Amino acid sequence: MLTAAAFASKLIFYASSLATAGAAVHGALGRTIGRGWLLLAAAVLVAAAALRVFVLNAQMGGSLAAGFSADTFGWTWAGLGAQTTALVAAAAAAAAAAIIRKRILYAAAGLTAASAFGLAGHAAGLEAPGLAPFVVALHVLIAAFWVAAPVVLWPSATLADDDVAARTAQFSAVAVWIVPLLFLSGGWLLLRLTGGIDAALSSVYGRLLLAKLLAAGVILAVGAVNMKIVSKQLIASPVRGRKALRAPLRIDAFLFFVVVLLVASATTFTGPDP
Question: What is the mean pLDDT of residues 168-196?
Fold first, then answer.
């Protein structure tokens, strides 16, 4: 029961963190999403962060009822306090950005949410973490930018044809430079957390993270098709282009969910060898 609760809480936690950070990053770049969606993502992020603290406290006490126990809360907060505080601050900045629409608030929300992942977790728990927490923050920031693509680029009826084409072109122009960093940082973290390629291939934890990178590779391939073919269709034939854009975005959304599932599995059911 506790393991299932931990898995579910991490799934919601990772998804809401990436959604909030991704929307914030795109807002900082001038591509905002609906106010209601960002406020919802920020609210879910706060709830998910609180739920994660509750579940960890329950695990420390050995039962779900122990989630409310003050006896173990000090230990729980020592592990998650800094990250939880940062994520609540990020959610507050995102909510303020949704209302005020200032790029500085979007940027603060995105950077704070991504940086929070360097404050707890396997990378922060290394005996000598070194650059690992900073690389985690960079990895999450880029991943959030990418994960938000299905929402930011969705060709809704409220967007003009020129806006759809411009958003797609702008996204591709940024992605072509930063997505390679996502794979480099992910590969570096895989080796750093597992101790090397042999250990990564021989451990369940390493294989799950490798599967995550492979899924991201498929998403990259879909994105390449989007950049090479769909972008041209959006200009030549907006109606056909809009229809063609929806398919890869749906595939991306599904594969992003698979990636989050793999990460939640890796951090719940297993972990790096000591």
Answer: 86
In whole angstroms, give the CA distance from residue 83 to residue 270. 21
Distance set, CA 222 to CA 152, 177, 250, 261 (Å): 16, 16, 10, 20
Residue 152: φ, ψ to 5°: -65, -35
Measured from the Cβ of residue 162, the count of other Cβ atoms closer than 10 Å reads: 11
Torsion sign across C-alpha atoms 132, 52, 262, 86:
negative
Query: One-letter amino acid identity for 169?
Result: A
Contact (CB, 8 A) for 88 and 49: yes
On whether the pTM is more than 0.85, the answer is: yes
Kindly write down the DSSP assignment for every residue of 94-160, as one continuous string: HHHHHHH--HHHHHHHHHHHHHHTTSSSTTTTSSS-TTHHHHHHHHHHHHHHHHTHHHHT---TTS-
Q: Which among 142, 89, 95, 86 has a CA at the least distance from the CA of 115?
A: 86
Task: Please give the pLDDT value at position 199.
Answer: 79
